[in-house]
Amino acid sequence: MDRASDAAEEAADSKGFELAARAGYVAAGILHVVIGVIALGLATGGSGSADQSGAIGQLAGSPGGTALLWFCFLGCIALALFFLSEIFFGVRALSGKEKLTARTKNGGQAVVYAVIGATFGQFALGGSSDSSSSSSSLSASLMAHPAGAALLFAVGVGVLVVGGYFIYSGATRRFRRKLSSLPSGGIGTAVTALGTVGYMAKGFALGVLGVLILVATVTNNPEQSTGLDGALKSLRDQPFGTWLLGAVALGLMAYGVFMVVRSKYQRM
Asked: DSSP character for 179?
């Protein structure tokens, strides 16, 4: 067991594994840029699905899309494994509550990137998925049972909290703590600006999503729980919604570009 643990830690510390994991940030960045482009199209009267499956579907249909999907799949899975390794090897210097908090955050990020990677892999193999339909179906299943409805309500609250944390991180530039030294001058300022705008835009989008989940749960209407695409389209239908959606779309694109840059400067 000790030899297996040492081998796993050595693999997690290897340069090749680190580079593969950094590619996961590039994949997430590409995904957010495409979602932002689709959302901007919605704001200007276009159509499309501004969510994970819609964005990956567009990538699949682009020139060289299959190769790009495999790159994103491998990057996301490597990054998920990196966060999984951090649960065991990255918290040794911490103690008590700090260790539990770090393990919870790393575990959550491992799940997120594993799910994104699985979706990339599904499309790379010629399959497809519908995030909005899946969200509605899952919500309907949970609402059929009191415990499930309570769980869905908790998920809505959790999404709201995460959205608030993103806004807070952007407004206070807290995200810079995760980066190694940025270049001075215009480049560093630009990266910080991208992160600030991007984090706040994503937090706002998650906040709308969280509200829709809570409303769907309270009203027992799973059709209102349609994931990120439904949240952005709901935003568009509000007063001045076109302008709000356009701003959020540009912010999501900024977040995507930031994630690509983050792949270079992320402290790992």
From this structure: B
